[in-house]
Each structure stands twice: as structure tokens, then as C-alpha cells.
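Ticket opened by: R.M.
Priority: normal
Category: complex prediction / small molecule

The reporter submitted a protein together with adenosine-5'-diphosphate and asked that the result be attached to this ticket for the collaborator who will pick it up next week. Submitted input follows.
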Amino acid sequence: MLKANTGQFGLNAEHDPPMVVALMPSTQRHRTVAIGVVVVMLAVSALVAPFVNRQIGKIDSFLPVVQTVTSAADLLTATLLLAQYSVQPHRALLVVAGGYIFAGSFAFLQTLSFPGSYAPNGLIGDVYNTPAWFFVLWYTTFPLSILVYALLKDRGGGSRFSTTASMATTLISVFAAIALLSWVAIAETRRLPSFFTTGLMLQTSLSNQFNIGLSLLGCFVLLVLFVRRRTVLDLWLMVTLFAALPNFLVAAYEGSARFSVGWYTARGFALIASCMLLSVLVTEMIVLYSRLASALVMQRRERSNRFVSIDAATAAIAHEIGSPLGAITLNANTARQMLAAQPRRLDEVNAILRNIEEDSLRVNATITSVRELFKGAVDRPATISLEGIARQVLRLLQHELQFNGMLVATDFRVEMSLVRADPIQLQQVILNLFKNAIEAMASTSLNGRRLNIATRLDERSSFVLLSVQDTGRGVPPQHHDRIFDAFFTTKPSGMGLGLAICRTIIERYGGRLVLAKSSPQGSTFEIALPLEDDRRGSA
Ligand code: ADP
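Result attached by the on-call engineer:
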């Protein structure tokens, strides 16, 4: 079938790729970057380890700057996640967004209460315990939200309520919880256990126990997420949880943790981690947006090129006028018999001739309407590289190939060999072959889906060849001759025009499109186009 790329992005179909970045499967590139970030953090930790306990004094501007930025990054991340939820309502996204609102809010409240940040004794709460409690609230609500996310994420599905109602309920509940917990941390500090010995600013043993507890909670959630990891979001949440660990470790093992080298480093890590998820989301959204935009452009082009081929047009006309023509033949035959019979039944012959006339007018009207359909489809041949077009189509389908777990291997050997054809039509041909291959592999096991694309130059015939090999179900021998016929399809929603149109396009430019090989293990389609004249000498 000649299909539009964007047609694959419906929300409900099981095999359709997710529309939001957060739910996309992580790729090798994402994993490499994430591992790189973790390695850098480990290297920095190793570098500062000997000095972790060393006090470098209080830098007043450090905490307000770092934590305000962390808080802004967290709240922006929450906004992006909510925006993604509105596109693809998946309950788990709401939970992470809630977690980020908790983190961003408590980070900011802690900064407000921290002595020497926005005011010498902090703007809210008591000098010592309020910031410490905000720290605890920050690092319990966030990992707990991630834990709920990790447990919910594979269950799929949205909530029973509308998207707006679910978002509003989440926001109201999260902010109500923040207000309540903050009130306790600010106004009821006296009733809460104390983390610092007043005056000396030394941590109590309870503080150490809490820090160990928070590290264990962080490690546990990290482990759950690791076991259930799949998406880009899972990956960066793991990095974020990992980056938070030094905060507790430093605090747990140091007698007076604040303002030591370790303390500053740990806060820096938390900032980097917050900004990282945010930048990954923004970058990937821009990439996705550009792909969707190209797909849309391509879909528009496809619409105007859909019926470019004369053969396909003929096939469509033949389909439409088949029955009136059949009736005309039958009627003419009957009329002849009546004229030959004695006595001649001229009245009946007259009626039959009227029928023939009406059928002919119907045929004429059909041809006129089909011609209207083909108007505006013009060829714009250009000298192009077959490989270049194949690469463009691969880029367009990258997301879909990745989502369907396809392993793509390219073996391009004719970089400099050019052919003459309309680039848009050639894009459609290659897109159709790739899409057919993807569909043929839908029933293959996930680790056996392989798409091999190769180009080579046939020096003898001066043809450039592009082969598309898949590991799908193959074309059964009885269909080999029929798959290029118009309206032949084995798919429930297929039109059976794709290969017919593709073949006509390729033949129009002096080439051929064939099923080169097929077996139950897969098939190989091959396009051959004549090498552009100017290049023949140099090929
Ligand atoms: P459609 O995709 O609408 O069926 P096409 O003309 O593109 O129309 O394909 C015609 C038929 O050829 C398909 O229905 C399918 O049976 C067969 N076919 C095409 N490509 C492949 C492939 N890569 N592997 C197996 N069968 C294929």
C-alpha cells in the first residue's frame, strides 16, 4: 500500500509508536550518553573523595543560585511531562510530573528556609531543622513518586476522567500535600525530631539514620526502575536518582556535612541531574517535532502524487468501467441476435441501443472524473543519488523502525552514482518498500527483525541497484506474479496499489522493480535505475 508516514501515529494501535518523548524506548545513543554522565559523576566523586570532609566555608550565593535553578528545572520538567500527558494520557506520566512538582517545590522551600540563602536566618521556619525537614520531604516524595511510576508504567492506559480533569486533580492534590507538609515543617518544627544540635550545627544520630534511610530508598527505587527500564524517561530518572545519592552519603558520613567539599559537590550533582532530564526532553521533543513536520510534508506530497502512474490510472479506470463495459458487450450481442432473428424485434433492439448509449455515457463520466483526480500530478525529474533518497527515507522512518525493534543495516556502495528520476516519487517508492517490509516483519519475533538495504553498481548494464531485504514472512510462490498487479493485496486494510504504482514509476525512468528473492524467511525487492548518462563515462 502507498501509505503516508504520519498515518502510523494513531494513539491506540498496539504497534504504533508513542507520540511523546517520555514514552519512547531508549536507544543505544541515549544509553551511551547516560552511562557517560554517570561515569563523569563517578570520576568527579573519586577526585573529590579525599577532600570530601574538608570545609571550604559558607558561600552565601551558592545555595540560593543552585537550588533555585534546580527548582526551576524541576518545575519546567513537570510542565513538559504534563504537556506530554495531554498528548498521550498515560497515568504514569502524571505521577512523575507530580514527583517533579514535589521536588521543585521542596527544593525552593528549603532554599527559602536555609540560613544565609535569602535571609541570614532563612525566610521561613527555624534556622536548622526546617531546612533539614524540607530536604527529607524533597528526597522522600520524589523517589516515592518515581517508585509509583515504575510500578504503574507498564500497566498502560489513562484514567477514567478527562485529561484536563486528571491533570487538575493531580495538581490540586500535589499542591495540597505540599502546603500541608510545609506547614508542619515550618510551624510545627518543635514537635518534630531534631536533626541538629542547636548552636553547634552538628548532626544528631537521627540525622545520620535518616540519611542512610534516604540512600536506601533511593537505591531501592533505582533498582526497581533498573529492572523495569525501557523508555527514555526511565533511563534519565535512573541517572537523576543516582545523582541524588551523594547528597545522603555525604550527609550520613560526615559529622558536619554542610559547606564541605562533598556537600557542594553533591548539590552540584543534583542540579546537573535536574537540568539533564529537562534538556533531554527538550532536545528529543525538537527532534520528534522535526520528524513529524517532515512526515507531514511528505504526506502532503504523497497525496498530490498518489495517482501519478499511467498504469495505475488505467487500472483504476478499468476497475470503475468494468461493469458498464460488460453490460455494453452483452447488450450489443443480444441486439445482434435480435436483428438476425425473424421477425426482427426492432422495438426491443431500440431499447437495448438506448441502454448501450446510457452505459457509454456512464463510462465517459467515469473517465472524466478519474481524469480530474489525476490533474496536477506532474513529474519533476532531477539527477539524484538513490542512496541519498534511501537515507532520507530511513531518517523519516527512524522512529517507526526503532519502535518496531527493527535492526537496520545499510551497505551503500554507489555514493557518487547518480540516476535520473523525480526525487519525490522515488521517495514514495522506497518508503513503500520499507513500509511493506516493516509490515511483513510485524509477525516476526522482536529480535529477528532485520532490514538490510544495499546499493551497488552493475558495471555491465550501467544500472544502479538498490535492494531492500527483510526477514518477514516472505511472498508465497503463488503470489509472485500477482503482487505487482493493481488491487492485489493480502492485507485487511491494504489497497494493493503500492507496488503497482512503484513499478510504473520506476519503469517510467527506464528502470525495473522486481521481487528478487523470497522465502518464508523473508523477501528482497530490488530497484534498478539506469546510471545517469553524464556519469557513465566516469563510473
Ligand atoms: P498493499 O500494501 O496495500 O497490500 P502493495 O502493492 O504495496 O499493496 O503490496 C501488495 C502485496 O504484496 C501485499 O499485500 C503483500 O501481500 C505483498 N508484499 C509486498 N511487500 C511484501 C514484503 N516485503 N513481504 C511480504 N509480502 C509483501
